[in-house]
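In practice, a research group might receive sequence data for several interacting partners and want a quick structural hypothesis before committing to experiments. The following worked case mirrors that situation: the sequences arrive first, and a predicted assembly follows.
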Amino acid sequence: DGGITQSPKYLFRKEGQNVTLSCEQNLNHDAMYWYRQDPGQGLRLIYYSQIVNDFQKGDIAEGYSVSREKKESFPLTVTSAQKNPTAFYLCASSTQAPALSYNEQFFGPGTRLTVL
Amino acid sequence: AQRVTQPEKLLSVFKGAPVELKCNYSYSGSPELFWYVQYSRQRLQLLLRHISRESIKGFTADLNKGETSFHLKKPFAQEEDSAMYYCALRRNSGNTPLVFGKGTRLSVIA
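A structural hypothesis for the assembly, expressed as tokens:
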């Protein structure tokens, strides 16, 4: 698997600390997304970016922050303000498919964050 | 607001039996619907999209606008079909996020 990489695979954090999750893609995709996956909750959107230097809040953005300084990178910072940060975090990317009305999202392998 | 409902958390079927994973949605416009699958220790990947009207790994899904449903079906389940399945709805056209259901875990028993 290439395309989208996330690091680290596992991350441990003490309460009160900020931590940054990495997401890189070499697919030349314009849009990137961060989802949080919890058992029984499905995937919920945290933030997304449709173009460099622009991003939008998703459904559960509180306690998170992002940046999009480069097309290939979309790091997510989990701040100490996030009340329940222990979860599996998935990054995705997509591009406008020419002559088609859909845009497949490709997912990274995920980062499991555990707050101790 | 857009919403995707998958009523079954877990579905267990015997090998060779038919499978139907239910998905209902609420959306005021023309929906774009997808099924994603996550096999054990693998990343989430696209299985089907309604616009393609294709069959992948024996699975099909038909968009029923009258019933606002997009159920995933397979006539004969295989053990390798055991996975987590998510139904998803695109909010708007273009590079926009997906709204996911809570997922259904399919377990195919030998």
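Before designing any experiment, note the following. Chain B has a mean pLDDT of 92. Chain B has no helices and eleven strands.
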